[in-house]
Design goal:
Length: 190
């Protein structure tokens, strides 16, 4: 069985405006069997931009079993409460209701075709979601903001760590990367 993948919102980073900047996370829905996962339910123009595409797929928010945070920045976590029955996954734990279970994300398995790995760089806490689809491996990650970069992440505490994470992802041979704030792209080998 392979995972069905749907991008609910293509992420973006807009231009500066007088009152700030428009930012939206790439929000992805994954399903395999009884497992329903939303990755990075962060900033969106409205909650409808998340819920309407899910509804079009026939998925109610209460059916989502798992939510994955690539990292703990608000632009990737803000709308997590839309999914009242989900387990929430980050780099170091799984949360459900008031239960906090310490669990390193490295190698965490959500289903046969969905697993997590640590890919620090944008933050020291970054993780990536590895998704086995019929087309091949797809990686949801913030190792890249978009297909075009930035090559030097302005928030990365250590660019060498980020480069190693990018190399690790490339070595897995993904057919597609869904970056933190842009359209899916095919990663270059180099």
């Amino acid at each position: 069985m392979s995972v069905s993948l749907h991008v609910l919102q293509v992420g973006y980073v807009g231009d500066e405006e007088p009152l700030g900047m428009r930012v939206g996370s790439s929000i992805t829905y994954l399903t395999e069997g009884d497992v329903h996962v939303v990755v990075d339910p962060g900033l969106a123009p409205s909650q409808r931009h998340i819920l309407d595409p899910l509804g079009a797929l026939g998925v109610a928010p209460a059916e989502v079993t798992d939510v994955v945070f690539s990292h703990q920045h608000i632009d990737h976590t803000l709308n997590a409460a839309l999914f009242p029955n989900a387990r929430f996954h980050d780099f170091a734990a799984i949360y459900r209701g008031d239960l906090w279970s310490d669990a390193d994300a490295e190698g965490r398995v959500l289903s046969d075709g969905i697993r997590l790995i640590r890919t620090p760089g944008h933050t020291v806490e970054d993780i990536s979601t590895l998704v086995s689809t019929e087309a091949g491996l797809v990686v949801c990650t913030h190792a890249w903001w978009t297909a075009d970069g930035p090559d030097e992440d302005p928030y990365a505490p250590d660019m060498d760590v980020l480069r190693r994470s990018r190399d690790r992802i490339r070595a897995l041979g993904p057919v597609m990367v869904i970056p933190g704030h842009g359209a899916a792209f095919v990663p270059s080998i180099g």
